[in-house]
Amino acid sequence: MYRTHTCGELRIANAGERVVLAGWIQRIRKMGGMSFVDLRDRYGITQLVVNDSKDSSLNEIVGKLGREFVIQASGRVVERSSKNSKIPTGDIEIETESVKILNGSLTPPFTIEDDTDGGEELRAKFRYLDLRRSPLKKAMELRHKTAQQVRNYLDSKGFLEIETPVLIKSTPEGARDFVVPSRMNPGEFYALPQSPQQLKQLLMVAGYDRYFQIVRCFRDEDLRADRQPEFTQIDCEMSFVEREDILNTFEGMMNTLFANLLDTGFDLEKKFKYHDEIKISGSFPRISYTDAMKYYGSDKPDIRFGMKISSIKQIAAGAGFSLFDSAEYVGGISVPGAAGYTRKQTDELTEWVKRPQIGAKGLVYIKLAEDGIKSSIDKFYTPDHLQKIADEMEAKSGDLVLILAGPEKKTLEMLGSLRIEMGNRLGLRNSDEYAPLWVYDFPLLEWDEETQRFYAMHHPFTSPKPEDLDNFFSTERDKIAKVSANAYDFVLNGTEIGGGSIRIHDPAIQNRMFEVLGFTKEEAEYRFGFLINAFRYGAPPHGGIAFGFDRLCALFGGQESIRDFIAFPKNNSGRDMMLEAPSRIDEAQMKELFLKSTH
Amino acid sequence: MYRTHTCGELRIANAGERVVLAGWIQRIRKMGGMSFVDLRDRYGITQLVVNDSKDSSLNEIVGKLGREFVIQASGRVVERSSKNSKIPTGDIEIETESVKILNGSLTPPFTIEDDTDGGEELRAKFRYLDLRRSPLKKAMELRHKTAQQVRNYLDSKGFLEIETPVLIKSTPEGARDFVVPSRMNPGEFYALPQSPQQLKQLLMVAGYDRYFQIVRCFRDEDLRADRQPEFTQIDCEMSFVEREDILNTFEGMMNTLFANLLDTGFDLEKKFKYHDEIKISGSFPRISYTDAMKYYGSDKPDIRFGMKISSIKQIAAGAGFSLFDSAEYVGGISVPGAAGYTRKQTDELTEWVKRPQIGAKGLVYIKLAEDGIKSSIDKFYTPDHLQKIADEMEAKSGDLVLILAGPEKKTLEMLGSLRIEMGNRLGLRNSDEYAPLWVYDFPLLEWDEETQRFYAMHHPFTSPKPEDLDNFFSTERDKIAKVSANAYDFVLNGTEIGGGSIRIHDPAIQNRMFEVLGFTKEEAEYRFGFLINAFRYGAPPHGGIAFGFDRLCALFGGQESIRDFIAFPKNNSGRDMMLEAPSRIDEAQMKELFLKSTH
Known about the structure:
By secondary structure, chain A is an alpha+beta fold. The first copy, chain A, has 20 helices and 23 strands. In chain A, the strands form 5 sheets. An 8-stranded mixed β-sheet of chain A has the order 6-9-10-22-21-20-17-11, with helices on both faces. Chain A has a 5-stranded mixed β-barrel with strand order 1-2-3-5-4.
């Protein structure tokens, strides 16, 4: 061992001890005939002191040192005269007796500090240096602890971690698979799993009634800002359960995480304040998809704040304002304390909702100011009528009512975006609070006009709600479209981080699902034959859930982007800038794989 | 929840309770107006009893049941009149009140019993049914527990589990990479990692001084009987350590596993007998590669038994027996108590060593029988001389001495094989014992006559022993060939299940390594540029180890084959017989990937 202690562990109680430390040089200062060296490792920083005039050979070595050199230093722990309360080792320093250079370093291309001067691309290329910075180190530690907590919780609940293969069969439905040519089976390809969905269902058929895996998944999609071609899931499945059994089990997991991730350097104690209010043993709120859309205009509502959407079509129609009279839907939100918004501010909000990302045609407002009601539609509505609308929305004096009208689903989604925007503007999306929520009873199917067929909203193994089976087996498209799925999402602060469903275990329902999705018997057999076959040999009732592990870690770390919670992420073109992957392979290898590039 | 209890948990103390169970039907018997149904789940088997004449509707349902049907049954726990001491639930049965069929089942293609009647291919195709059998269930549980123990141990030692990417860069050196065409980067490919070797070294450069991962690795090799194209490693790396620090850390891990895997249904208590003798806190034996070859003719000796190899060239030469006089090496083993072997038996042994797999030209024996020494070479040697040879080998009266002669390395390897064979024949390789062993100081390089170049025995990042650096930088091929690596293997019962090394952290030594391996600067830069670059920015001294997790689990489970310790293994052609993977992909997908098949 090159060291007796780490750079994070010495305290005043160690004063007088002879120690050996090893690490990287964070910085060197000269002051009053002394050299001060900050030595850094994963655990912290310890100050080394060298008396410049005492030992000329030691002094010579210190003279050669530079930033990020790796050294081994020995000496005696002494109490500091001027203590540094900002670091845990700040009460002591090392009276250095010898220094050995273990490795030199070029000057790093950016500073290894919390706030570095390096741009994103440079840091991606030198990821091993970026990973030396404290925020990334904390992210890696948080991720490790989260994984350990998840595993220990699920282990304690009787779940078995079972590894499923990475080289599987391509079953395209939804996103694109990455494929792997097989040299031993010329002309054939493996696929990398988008999720172990079918394999975990086979494990249920095999009788492993509580399965989990923290597992890598792959999706060859065009990458949006915060998507990765490979990502990690907490993947789970249970047999002989109903929805509430699953929700309760994973509320327990979330509670364990909330309770046990307090010492990760993210000041999580403060962050879990909201959680304390809803109590660790309590249930998380639940809302149906229909209500989530109706009240929040979103299937992943951020419930850290209110500002719910109200429908006012009934009360607003019939006053001769043709927009409201003709619209399928009229609704709005009441923004607390914003009645004082100026004309300029409401104009700017109008522009905001008219942006193509939102797509509204205009915005109607009612200001419940102290000196009376003002509105952009007071030509059509009497103050009394406006007050009635405001009352319907439970708006109070001082509030600003914002109203949109149009087709129901689209308008609700616009109001949902507007609600989030107003939450941001009013500072109601407190990053110190965590508001978990279950959303359930999603639509089972989505009709695609272009291909004139239904697509599964979740995947083709999601069970319809038992009460909707008549509609599911109906020949009328409208009835089929109305079927709800026994599916649920776990939402945290307006981000979906988990989703799952009770699966189909009845072969007749599964066959009907393939039929509804427009698969011929042969297609279904080719794509999902092994699963269809397995279901003939005693499939138990089962269901499961999968959580986005990268996203979960980022949320716990209080960050928007997942990239710093992945050790070696890829950029938006799916490239690893450090490894320079993907890359060309040589002709001999292509030949062995029976492949030719047409590029 | 479909059940109140599992099929493995009810005991006599539960008598009188009303319970609901769910599971699969193992078998049904009718006897004296009663039906007995064995209901099975992951946790055990519970007997349900139905009085055939009591409830006609219940009786009707029971009449429909068949093997592997999934049912839900409710009733009252009662004490059995004739108890079954073979199962933990054998004191009770369920007086069944109602049965609900949750799913039917076709008759399975083989019996779901410990000793099934299904052939290997059939079981591979119906893996989800094979996984219902108890031996596989126990294997999955053992694997889960082993993984948990490994993680908890390493976590307690300050290791961080850090996930490394699966889509990396192809760096062919040694086995073939699987590759993944990139749609977004036409003409370019990712590679699947053969191990995260370079990534974990980058993590050391990044300052994460204790890393581990239980990680999937990939090798596109022609598969031998017990190899898999994807396999799992316990992958570890540490900084600021020397060899002994690493060996001690992982002895600790093995001791934890030995101590804590006693309740997995494999009767491991008995199996760890040997281990108790060497004491849980004690060190595992260590042997150098040179001594391992000299005494055991193998770099992975099985030390559960002695029968060490002795060199007898000195004492045997000069008697006019030209085979021994001319051979580079003469050596043998002394087989205890086998002096009574008949001529037929020694002839058979001679045939055995002459098989092409061993390749010896012949076998010399000396029988130390009670009625005097007998030997196949008594034409050339006096009884006195033979006795001297036997004495040199510490053979005792009653032993059978077996001698081979030829080129040193090859003959030692033959003797090593013969030793294992004799150990098997004499029942000395006791499957109830575990004999761990470290082998260290392997050769660094191997000269290949065909390509006229050196290859790295381990990989190009393995450090030479410091005392061999002069030879390493020498221009003479003989001197370079003699350099030892600071590498070590963990061997258990004659199987290598772990291997690692202290790595090179000095850029000058790393460059010399690339030079010795015949890489030009450009080649080295293209293949390992990111690592060479990283080493310019302060690489700490570091080293690590990786264990074959599949193999480790199989050994703990007392099995030779890893296949039953992998949930969904592939066959010898790399095919998943259940998924029918790999398979053809459609032309559209090939086009998107800019690929054409030439097959």
